[in-house]
From TrEMBL:
Residues 10-201 form the Plastid lipid-associated protein/fibrillin conserved domain. PANTHER family: PLASTID-LIPID-ASSOCIATED PROTEIN 4, CHLOROPLASTIC-RELATED. InterPro entries: PAP, PAP/fibrillin_dom. It comes from Phormidium tenue NIES-30. Pfam families: PAP_fibrillin. This is Plastid lipid-associated protein/fibrillin conserved domain-containing protein.
């Protein structure tokens, strides 16, 4: 290994150990972890993939990723305490990226979460959207066109095939956001929102 590769490996190990030491709610709810944020920032300077959103890097970028850390929570988790009168447990959060219609014109994204609600069961919520990368190959315009909710475990009964409820977002109501992919390697990916929120995804 080169000194740079050695340092990157050390930081990755340190980062994942720090994240694994957290409960999932602590890792993806809006709780401050400045030491973790500092490691992320240092790893961003050692990003092995320049312009990670360029199409030649899609084989490494596309696929399913688990969200393991969000410095200021996510759109879903920031609202849990306000929207639900009962405590909600987060089982997992993921993001699935695919080539939009196989055209190479954009990246289709599915952001999902499995939530456990007391006395009810498990609920899977997903948002379907698209990334439109900019030419500089690091940032993209992101918009979501539909949201889906499905009960996957009801009153403790698993294996149910309950219908999905899909709510399309009307064209004039869609809002675009900036998404920056600031680090990418074979099993780790960082994203930044427009406000600087840090996201860590893992294969």
């Amino acid at each position: 290994m080169t000194p740079l590769q050695t340092r990157r490996h050390q930081l990755k190990t340190q980062l994942l150990q720090s994240i694994n030491a957290l409960e999932i709610e602590d890792a993806i709810l809006p709780v401050e972890h400045p030491a973790i944020d500092q490691i992320i920032c240092e790893l961003e300077t050692l990003n092995p993939i320049d312009q990670p959103l360029r199409q030649e890097h899609w084989p490494m970028l596309l696929g399913s990723w688990a969200l393991v850390y969000a410095s200021r929570g996510t759109v879903v988790t920031r609202r849990l305490g306000r929207q639900f009168p009962l405590p909600v447990s987060i089982q997992r959060v993921w993001q699935r990226l695919t080539d939009s219609e196989g055209t190479g014109a954009g990246i289709a994204t599915e952001n999902g979460a499995v939530l456990s609600l007391p006395l009810f069961g498990e609920l899977t919520a997903t948002a379907q959207g698209v990334w439109n990368p900019y030419e500089e190959g690091e940032s993209a315009r992101v918009s979501f066109g539909a949201f889906t909710v499905q009960a996957t475990r009801l009153l403790g009964i698993a294996g149910l095939h309950l219908p999905q409820i899909t709510v399309p977002v009307l064209e004039f109501l869609r809002q675009e956001a900036l998404w920056i992919t600031s680090y990418l390697d074979e099993d780790l990916r960082f994203g930044r929102g427009a406000t600087g929120n840090l996201f860590v995804f893992r294969r």
